[in-house]
Specification:
alpha/beta; 8-stranded parallel β-barrel; 9 strands; about 45% helix; binds ligand G3I
Length: about 375
């Protein structure tokens, strides 16, 4: 039978494993505490709202170690910049491409993040085959197939969806998109939200758009949200994209929109935040908003900081981001998420829009993934609180 020595050995091994266990737990705890203690955007604003970034394909595939480290350290929510858009994920009527989307969701799960799906219905980056759909029933079926297939695939794993993106004109009237034209009105919006709610009742459902600080466009959003609510169709949030500049929009206009959307009983999220450091051609006297600004390409007046921002320009951006985040903190009870449209300046779409080939500085991290002065200004808002 068991000699004393055997019992002793078993006890020792149990205590060893326990001590290893506790060692592991302690190291995990210290790691967590360390990471909690590490100054970062997610640690600083974690109690106020989620904070994150849009990831491009390389970042989703973790092909860049510095990006991967920064994303894990700073953010607790992610959005796919392009890889879940219709043309990417559903390129042909009977073909879906889920490789990058699967990797995106896996990355978010690995870091226990709030995972956003962007975007189910958008007039832009729509797969070419959809432009041939001109029957309303066929359109309704394609939308149903698209939303059911994608939302059910990521049920419970994608926490919020930009269900419909940019369905309004600047004056708040409906945008005459392919969906609108073929289905003869805005019923496609109700159709999309109903389908998404049924496919994943646990996901947050968002209407997302730009310039939602504009009073007339605000009215359009309120019309869409109220129409869905009146029909008992689930909508949880309004996504203000927030592609802003140093000059505008005014904090007052943004605040009025936060208050107006929150008053509808939905959450407000800033879904694509960036602050361009460069002049916009339409700000030039009398210049209208046009599709292409090719004639400005290479114009040094429109690309004034090819080798870095001046101290004055840096100061302006820092002051602008401070004012924006002070507003977010003032209304943190209404705001659930702030997502930057990109991880660092080098990735930003604003290097090629509205004028191709410019050097822009719209985000908090530089082209080497290093925090910029403005990053520290934003964090200081919390430490000074
Ligand atoms: O995938 C092709 C690649 O195969 C080709 O080699 C390359 C060369 O031109 O183009 C690649 O497609 C580009 C795509 O991004 C993926 O990188 C498109 O040209 C380019 O136009 C597209 O730009 C995206 C833009 O949406 C399209 O409208 C931007 O990266 C993305 O930041 C931007 O994001 C939108 C939001 O989804 C909605 N709100 C506005 C925001 C800014 O436009």
């Amino acid at each position: 039978m068991f000699k004393k020595i055997h019992v002793l050995l078993i006890l020792v091994s149990i205590s060893f494993s326990n001590c290893n266990e506790t060692k592991k737990e302690t190291s995990e705890k210290t790691l967590a505490l360390d990471s909690k203690a590490t100054p970062s955007l997610k640690n600083s604003f974690g109690e106020d709202f989620l904070i994150g970034a849009a990831l491009n394909t390389n970042q989703i595939k973790e092909l860049d170690a510095s990006a991967a480290a920064l994303i894990e350290k700073e953010f607790n929510t992610i959005t796919p910049e392009n890889d879940m858009k219709w043309e990417q994920i559903h390129p042909n009527e009977d073909a879906y491409f889920f490789d990058v989307a699967d990797a995106y969701v896996a990355l978010g799960q690995k870091h226990d993040m709030h995972i956003v799906g962007h975007t189910l219905l958008w007039h832009s980056q729509l797969a070419p085959w959809m432009s041939a759909v001109n029957d309303s029933l066929a359109m309704a079926n394609h939308i149903e197939n698209h939303i059911n297939t994608i939302v059910k695939r990521y049920k419970g794993n994608i926490h919020s969806w930009d269900v419909v993106n940019e369905a309004l004109n600047e004056d708040g009237t409906p945008r005459a998109s392919q969906f609108y034209k073929v289905m003869g009105g805005e019923s496609y919006i109700e159709h999309a939200f109903k389908l998404a709610a049924k496919a994943d009742p646990s996901a947050q459902l968002i209407y997302n758009d730009y310039n939602l600080w504009k009073p007339e466009k605000r009215k359009g959003v309120i019309r869409i949200v109220k129409n869905l609510q009146d029909k008992g169709i689930k909508i949880d949030g309004v996504g203000m994209q927030a592609h802003w500049s140093v000059e505008g929009p005014s904090i007052e206009d943004i605040e009025n929109s936060i208050i107006a959307y929150s008053a509808l009983g939905v959450k407000v999220m800033f879904t694509e935040l960036d602050v361009t450091a460069l002049p916009n051609p339409w700000e030039l006297n009398g210049a209208a908003v046009e599709q292409s600004y090719e004639r400005y390409e290479g114009d040094p007046k429109m690309n004034p900081y090819p080798n870095g921002l001046t101290a004055e320009a840096k100061e302006k951006i820092a002051k602008r981001y401070e004012a924006i985040f002070n507003l977010f903190l003032k209304h943190k009870d209404k705001i659930s998420r702030v997502t930057f449209w990109g991880v660092n300046d080098g990735q930003s779409w604003l290097n090629n829009w509205p004028i191709k080939g410019r050097t822009n500085y719209p985000l908090l991290f530089d082209r080497n993934f290093q925090p910029k002065d403005v990053y520290h200004n934003v964090l200081r808002l919390k430490t000074n609180e």
